[in-house]
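Posting here for the record, re: magnesium ion.
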Amino acid sequence: MYKFPEAVRKTYEALEIPFLIMGVEEGMPKAILFTDGFLKFQGVSRETLNELFHGDLDGNLFEKVHPEEAAKLKAVSDDFVLGIQGDYDVIFRTRRADGYHRVHAKGFRQRMKDGSDACIIVYSDMSAHEDIASELAEKYSLLGNEGFFIDYLTDLPNINYLHAYGQDRLMDILAMEKTPVLMYFDVDSMQTYNKQYGIQKGDELLILTARSLQEEFPEGLVIRGADDHFVVLDSIESREKLGARIKAVNRRIKHEAGGQTTGIHAGVAIYTKGKSIADGLDHAKLANKYLGEDLNHCYRFFEKSDMEDLINERYIVENFRHAIKNDWIKIYYQCFLRLETDKGAGFEALARWHDPERGVITPADFIPILEKYHLIHKMDLYIFEKVCSEIKPRFDANLPLLPVSVNFSRQDFDYINVPEELNRIVERYKIGRYNIDKSYFIIEITEQDMALGTENFYEQLREIRESGYKLWIDDFGSGYSSLNVFSRFDIDLIKFDMDLLRHLDDHNGANREIIKAMIGVARKLGVHTLCEGMETEEQKAFLKEAGCELAQGFLYHKPEGLDTIFHRLGLGIPIPAWETEEERKTLSEKW
Ligand code: C2E
Ligand code: MG
Ligand code: MG
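Prediction output follows.
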């Protein structure tokens, strides 16, 4: 006869709650197990029941049931097992040592991973005035369809078990005057591992992880979560000691796995007063997430500030649509300078979130979040459209219409066809009225994004340039140097990252030489140059001497909104001198 896996049997049989579980396949009972609680409840020994159910499942469970109710109970039970009746909810009398007791039995079915059903029936003695059947039925049926409490691959208790019994375990640790700790593990690059070595090896890696955790945390409750996640609830002595144990697990996995793996990552949440298992799990997960792909560290403790970050993250995501609708997102224009003439040559459009509650939020605080939640393309198109819509007021105020650059993220190109969207917006604003064309708009892509793009991304970039927009490489030299952008792409300009300028004199002035040489290369290839972050006269002098064409920085102009620029115009306060259309053309060509 089919048996429940050993680990399942052991876990359940030991339970004090009176219930039985029957494995059912295609309406046929295949296996049955009884908890210790059930034996006690019925007043029978395990031997008797085993004998009764040896070889088949027709053993008479109804022998002690009141004769008037036995037939009814059998019929209801059969219907339930066959699946004719979904719920099982009966009251009957059964014989105990001191006479008949009224019993409430409540049953429910759960679909298992392998397509079979598990029928669980919980009993409670109504004469004893404790109807745990209803209570438990409710609790258990909340447990989802993944199985009861056991993960069949690793034989570890699963996350349901943690939810049902974790809190008790936590209380036990506290009762021993120890500090509970919850660890959330994931196996690095599990998908890649599966792809490379096959599912079976992947399973072996998970089993190895399970065993290593059990051995390193012998007192702890080790849980297999979904996919490649594991949870351990234990007590902590010190951060160092716990860290050493996590590292040991990591080492062992790397060493013993049947293939190359980078090991595991853990987020660790130390218990704080009043927090539940669910809170701890959230915190540990968050710590693990913030650890990210950092291969230098295999664990990270949850800190209070993580929660603040999370709250901020939620705030941004939840309010993004609202921010756009209510015009909280503004453009700040930063003018850049032509070094030869000391005149403004164009602007970069930079996003600012003017929040009525939180004040001005800078791009560093919302761009990464919008990227993470795949919303950045909405933002970038919005900024581009706003730049278009602000052409008219600039024109009306007699501001020179210098070109404007807009930043685009690589992710945008996966979600929308950027050149198509740009064309659509530009057409709508009929920019010909202001004597400008598409070459007025500059699309900035960071060097990092350039280096990591897909064919679809590159194709769209080509189209952008072929449509007449300018293409600039932002943050050039910021650590992702990919000199092949020159050979692969027609680009109009490289923008040196401000870090280069900031460290001009480090290492015998290496950056001076790099900037000079790169300007030389760019010039030969007909690519324009701009340096970001010009803050001092000394830097400006260097850039001029090095032959850099354009410069952007606080020394010349700090980003400001159109309102501020208009306000200053109204007050007659001088604004930077700007070059004319004529000057731009001739000076640009000279390069
Ligand atoms: P970025 O495109 O490299 O923009 C230059 C950043 O450097 C701006 O910061 C600007 O205010 C700052 N900056 C300019 N001159 C100086 C200077 O002399 N000293 C210093 N310390 N900083 C200077 P901001 O506005 O905070 O923008 C940061 C980054 O956020 C931008 O870097 C850009 O990558 C991103 N970003 C801004 N707006 C958008 C947008 O609409 N879409 C996308 N995708 N990214 C944006
Ligand atoms: Mg930029
Ligand atoms: Mg930049």
